[in-house]
Amino acid sequence: MAAELGFAPDAATVAHGRDAAPAAADVAQERVFAELRRVLASDDPVAGMGWMDRLGLVASLLPELHALHGVEQSHYHHLDVYDHTMAVLEQAVLLRADAAPAFGAARAPAVAAVLAEPLADEADRGVGLMLGALLHDVAKPQTQTDFGGGRIGFPDHDRQGAETSRDILGRLKTSERMRSHVAGLARHHLRLGFLVHQRPLDRGDVYRYLRSCGPVAVDVTVLSVADRLATRGRKADEAIGKHLELARELITDALAWHADGPPAPLVRGDELARELGRPPGPWIADALDGLGEAQYRGDVTTREQALAWARDELRPPPADG
Fold first, then answer.
1. Is 104 contained in some domain?
2. What is the total count of domains within the chain?
3. Whole-number Å distance between alpha carbons of 102 and 26
4. Which residues form the HD domain (predicted)?
5. pLDDT of residue 149
6. Does some domain include residue 308?
7. Are residues 176 and 274 in the same domain?
8. Which of 11, 127, 200, 259 is most buried, taking the most CB atoms under 10 A from its CB?
């Protein structure tokens, strides 16, 4: 009710809530997720999550999220991991409501349309984004590493966070589609930030970003912006500016990829094997990916060019001896 209607509980209700919070872990987990979904689908998920935390429900139902309290970060951050996570959630809510300030007025309606698409478990992709905001850094406690000189990092927290997100949503009895979606957001939320340091990007860089992020390319681009906007430590304004510039470039391609998918292959795997005189094997998947990148770059546009590319780039390995 706080999240959906702006109400605030009275003191007696708060006291009862705190007393009852530990027992919430024994409630059917499908019901727990249904209530969490309502909080995240509301206009003010931050208020709802704030009450959940103060009442002890986060500790009871989402202990992995509660464990983010007090986990310090580097000087590029101004908040501990829990408060940073709530700040990311707040920014994600703003982007869900209006993406124009971040992505421009021309792209904002298309971003909003993607986030409004049904996802799974009676939730849309906007709720998926909120779950991604909550869980993207969930593996930071176990990956926190002190590199000395005030440098704190969290190596591998993206991969481990994807696994932990799956575990949490599995405990909440969500569908495989929801688990895969939110795990993808955790797994890929750092990719755009890494690409900032590689600018200017060519079409191959864009292809690899979209190919890696796959079905969450639009969503994780939005999440990365929320994450960046919530990070207000050292050199924040400079970092935010560069990140937003790249996000605006990539969102157009991500929206097109979401709408149309990757380019249709110009040749099949069996045709490549026959053309190169090689037996089928795992190499075909890599070859088709390389050919897809060449096609996305515009280096090949016809079947004949694709076969010529394959003959040139995928020559059979020399025989032993």
1. yes
2. 2
3. 41
4. 81-232
5. 78
6. yes
7. no
8. 127
Residue 200, in any domain of the structure: yes
Residues 239 and 172 in one domain: yes
Q: What is the DSSP string of 185-227?
A: HHHHTTHHHHHHTTPSP-HHHHHHHHHHHGGGHHHHHHHHHHH
What the block records as the tokens of 22 is 């530990």
Task: Identify the pLDDT of residue 2.
Answer: 86
In one-letter notation, the amino acid at residue 289 is D
Phi/psi at 152 (nearest 5 deg)?
-115, 130
What is the reported pLDDT for 72? Answer: 87
Do residues 301 and 209 both lie within one domain?
no
Same domain for 248 and 109?
Answer: yes
Q: In terms of residue numbers, what domain contains 291?
A: 269-313
Q: How far apart are CA 19 and CA 240, in angstroms?
A: 42
Query: What is the predicted pLDDT for the residue at 321?
Result: 42
Tell me: the pLDDT tens digits for 24-79?
Answer: 999 999 999 999 999 999 999 999 999 999 999 999 999 999 999 999 887 667 88
Q: pLDDT below 50 — which residues of the chain?
A: 321
Same domain, 278 and 302: yes
Instruction: Give a yes or no: residue 11 inside a domain.
Output: no
In 207-245, which positions are buried (b, 16+ CB within 10 angstroms) versus exposed (e)? bbbbeebeebbbbbbbbbbbbbbbbbeeebeebbeebbe
Distance CA 180, CA 187 (A): 10
CA-based nearest residue to 243, from 225, 230, 260: 225
